[in-house]
Predict the 3D structure of the following.
Amino acid sequence: VRPRLADAKFFFDQDRKKTLASRVPQLANVVYHNKIGTQLDRVQRLQQIAGHIADALARAGVPVDKAAAMRGAELAKADLLTDMVGEFPELQGTMGTYYARHDDEAEEVALACSEHYRPRFAGDALPSNAVSIAVALADKLETLVGIWGIGLQPTGEKDPFALRRHALGILRMLVETPLPLGIDALLALTEQAFAGVPAVKPAREDITDFLYDRLRGYLKDKSYTTNEVEAVVSLRPQRLDDILGRMEAVRTFAALPEAAALAAANKRITNILRKNTEAVGEVAPALFQEDAEGALHAAIDSVRPGVEAAFARGDFTAALRDLARLREAVDRFFDGVMVMAEDAGLRANRLALLASLHALANRVADISKLAA
């Protein structure tokens, strides 16, 4: 052990004779992937992505030092060129933080050098501050979009670039931090960073599907049922900072006595609307012929303000609980009204009524997924 420690002390002393920043240009000599470029190319992409993420967070009211995020991204891979990491590869990132502190870099920048690798494994801690989070997201998004874009997406058990782990890391940061960032926007700004790399083909739709599949597994690991997960994830929410609140609201709603009937009715409505090929316009109360039509329309109007107000303040449980008040009116409608009437105007109006109900009912989750 002593010779190894002596070597480490020597490497440590030698490495500190050069700053991390002075090593960055040498990353041009380290190939990341022959279709994507060098580690320097990658660092430049990380800077661009981290800067855009910092801007997005700032617009959403999350304080983050953009300059520090870009500096953290610039230095993130510099310790790959140190003797210490060359001898002890497992210290990658860790040594970056020590050397950045030695170079009198800001503490957030120093932490980003190691924390941008987080989470490294299931259950690992997330980055501790907004700068590290911006760099960590940039690192994982760059890997996911770049490697997928050159056709090396996971197949079966093969995942040599750990894209599943990177995807889960992205999701955990969005959900658990939580971050008010949209999935599509993050993928779009990452694609922009690859604009000058012709080998990287756009694959946003496939990557988005991949992320939502990982999200399903993540939520099931938190003991939510398949139906509860599908009720929320099938809507493909862009922002995930409120998804756990939605999941708890769905679970609470599913326990209500009205839930089963409303879920079945919503499933029926979904099927009716899916089969309809006609344009659905606005509801015209003057065309109602059955009392149940007017009753349902009035019930929807009565609960809408409460549902929308609860949704706006993030109280998804209250929003779904208010929807439960519609059960009687919905049951009456389906018991006494023929939706697909022969008269085209009457049929279109009833479809519009169901569409308005469907839109309101699915603000939080697709409750039809709760139907057995």
The CA atoms of residues 30 and 101 lie 24 Å apart. The two ends are 62 Å apart (CA to CA). The chain is about 60% helix and 0% strand. The longest strand covers residues 31-33.
